[in-house]
Design a protein that fits this description.
The chain has 133 residues and is of the alpha/beta class. The chain has five helices and five strands; from the N terminus they run ββαβααβαβα. It has a five-stranded mixed sheet with strand order 1-2-3-4-5, sandwiched between helices.
């Protein structure tokens, strides 16, 4: 991921699974990410998202306020069935907790979402593709 990119698509991305590593939030980064999510939703209906958020600082956390407008604008254009956030700082956990709090009314609302510590990555990659029964 370069300093101008907000996210990097990981090798685990295939079919209805979008796996990304996310750095600082930017307006263009959210536009690019949501274009990818819309494209995958058009192909597969509902999608699953694995989001790795390592080494976040308070500044990184604040940079993701850029996502509010794109959430409202594009949130209804894609459907996330399962979402896993994987991080290693309180700032990544805090952003997840805030999203979880507004989840019932927010347009970007996964059916199932969970936060994991970075060392749980192998287990998460097993959890995320599972179907809801």
């Amino acid at each position: 991921m370069t300093s101008t990119q907000m996210f990097e698509v990981l090798d685990e991305t295939e079919d209805d699974l979008v796996a990304i590593r996310v750095g600082r939030g930017t307006r263009q980064g959210y536009e690019d990410l949501y274009s990818l999510l819309v494209e995958k939703s058009e192909q597969y209906g509902t999608i699953k998202v694995y989001e790795e958020v390592p080494n976040w600082t308070f500044s990184t956390f604040l940079s993701h306020l850029h996502g509010i407008v794109p959430d409202l604008r594009y949130g209804s254009d894609f459907t996330i069935a399962r979402y896993a956030a994987v991080g290693d700082t309180r700032w990544s956990k805090l952003l997840y907790d805030w999203w979880r709090a507004v989840w019932p009314i927010w347009p970007v609302a996964p059916e199932t979402m969970q936060y994991f510590d970075l060392e749980e990555r192998p287990d998460v990659l097993q959890w995320i593709p599972q179907s809801e029964d």
